[in-house]
Amino acid sequence: MTTKDEFKQAPHKLLVIPGPIEVADEVLFANAHPSMSHVSPDFIPVFGDCVRMTREVLYTKTAQPFLISGSGTLGWDQVAANLVEQGENALVLHSGYFGDSFQDCLETYGAKVTQLKAPIGRAVALSELEKELKSGKKYKIVTVTHVDTSTGVLSNAKEITAVVRRISPETLVVVDAVCSVASEEILFDDWDLDVVLSASQKGLGTPPGLSILVASQRAIDVFKSRKSPPSSYYASWKKWLPIMNAYEAGTAAYFATPPVNLIYAYHAALKLIVRGEKTLEERFKLHKEASRQVKEAAKRLGLKQLPETDDEAANGMTALYFPEGLTAGDILPRLGKRDVVVAGGLHAAIKDKYFRIGHMGVSVVDGQRGDVNTIVRALEEALKEARTKSA
């Protein structure tokens, strides 16, 4: 029988899209746990530990995690169904594709949405946010995509929250952090955030399938005081809050079956992140270093980065325009031949003009793997070959 110490993943192409990402051997081994009852005495403390360790990743002592089977998109539904009532105003800060998607979700639940849209490659200016908050319209929530996976743009969630607190303190700040949790620093309590929503398959280094959301006590109070019932059945915190509380307290409760094996995998990933050899602070530094290495190599190779300023460029991914005269068909298959899988463009306005590289989780934290060097080498070789062929 294979043991944890003997388990190694089968050889495979290096997955460096902006999620799903490569996961550690320990995590895949945990995902292969024998089938287990979701109310088993063995499983209950594992789920409870996941709730507690999720708080640690986000530097919060009192916020409430929700771990629910689903993708990061389910986080939008939770926000829209539990915190915004029919006809209430929501302000969406748009720095790429996912701002439009969040708006669509909010409007599906009856919110009246205003969007502040940054130019492609930029984050929304704080001055624009301040101007809108002073316009006289009362906003129930402000949403920001911390790292928009379509552009690689990093928004300053700390400063955005400070502006909201100063001008409209009752407005809830919601951070879509699907592509930033565990690869970008997020200080939930210190920044006074209300919601951070994420998913398992990016910086948290777990296979896809788990929606992860953390809500402040202020947000929970807003939910509890709403005039109408939550507008979703599955996403209702009325259903899920007792479940999370029960498992954290060491007892089982049931609403819908949790993804038991995925929770075991997430538990293994969290132990590596908050109980591993490297501290969270060290992990963030390693992500910055990997980002610098990839971006400097790209610049050296004549590739232009999509984010227009370095301070608005994500540390967990890099978005790069194709060189003049070359397309996705010239670059991506050549990277694939070198066993490196990257992602094409996603933003509709420039979809065919750029590609995206993910560098987060085990690929940057475990230097012995050499993943970042593999990315750079493959990029150099693919570009050289493509340029030679097109000459």
Automatic annotation (TrEMBL):
Key words, A-Z: Aminotransferase, Pyridoxal phosphate, Transferase
Matches recorded under InterPro entries: Aminotrans_V_dom, Aminotrans_V_PyrdxlP_BS, PyrdxlP-dep_Trfase, PyrdxlP-dep_Trfase_major, PyrdxlP-dep_Trfase_small, SP_NH2Trfase/AEP_transaminase
Family the UniProt entry places it in: Belongs to the class-V pyridoxal-phosphate-dependent aminotransferase family.
Domain of life of the organism encoding this protein: Eukaryota
Modification N6-(pyridoxal phosphate)lysine, positions: 202
Keyword Cell membrane appears in the UniProt entry: no
Gene Ontology CC terms: peroxisome
A single BP term in Gene Ontology: glycine biosynthetic process, by transamination of glyoxylate
Cofactor needs: pyridoxal 5'-phosphate
Domain Aminotransferase class V: 29-349
GO molecular function: alanine-glyoxylate transaminase activity; L-serine-pyruvate transaminase activity
Enzymatic class: transferase
Matches recorded under PANTHER family: ALANINE--GLYOXYLATE AMINOTRANSFERASE 1, AMINOTRANSFERASE CLASS V
Organism this protein belongs to: Macrolepiota fuliginosa MF-IS2
Family matches, as Pfam families: Aminotran_5
Name of the featured protein: alanine--glyoxylate transaminase
Annotated positions binding substrate: 356
EC code(s) of this entry: 2.6.1.44
